[in-house]
Amino acid sequence: MSQLIVRAGEFTFEARFEEQLAPKTVAAFRKAMPFESQAIHVRWSGEGVWMPLGDLDFGVSYENHTSYPAPGQIILYPGGISETEILLAYGGVHFASKMGQLAGNHFITLTSGLENLTAFGKTVLWKGAQKIRFEEV
User: Fold this and answer.
1) Each residue's pLDDT tens digit, 41-75
2) Which pTM value belongs to this model?
3) Domains plus CATH for the chain?
């Protein structure tokens, strides 16, 4: 099982790839690591932060996809009717865009630091975009 460190603003989380459930998404994301972006608060989805990635193409389609990621689950929307994005749920999420409901590939799950997850989400909400970095350890 591959371990990751997710550095999000002033917080650090340990995580794991969901290699059994989303092998193609994990393989594609691994090629882009270490992956850096900025997390901003979601507009329509609820309690989550997202990394808008425009037309970045990871070359994957749907696998292990959901519209309702649980807190600590990270999903990749591979693009289509909305732009490519990564979303991290910190509370209740119903993944959507201005086009309507979306589904993303659940490919990473946070495994430690979950006690700080809501604080990170609220930091993004009230203080704005925060740097985020995914690295494999």
Assistant:
1) 999 899 999 999 999 999 999 999 999 999 999 99
2) 0.96
3) 4-136 (2.40.100.20)
* 120: number of Cβ within 10 Å: 22
**DSSP state letters, 56-102:** ---S---SSEESSPPTTEEEEE--SSS--EEEEEEEEE--EETTEE-
User: pLDDT of 88-98, one tens digit each?
Assistant: 999 999 999 98
For 102-114, the pLDDT digits (tens) are: 999 999 999 999 9
Distance CA 81, CA 100 (A): 9
Residues in Cβ contact with 25 at an 8 Å cutoff, skipping those fewer than 6 apart = 58, 60, 63, 64, 76, 78, 105, 107
Nearest to 69 by CA among 22, 35, 23, 29: 22
- What is the rounded distance in angstroms from the CA atom of residue 12 to the CA atom of residue 107? 18
Residue 103 buriedness (CB in 10 A; 0-12 / 13-18 / 19+):
middle
Give the tokens for residue 23.
């092998």
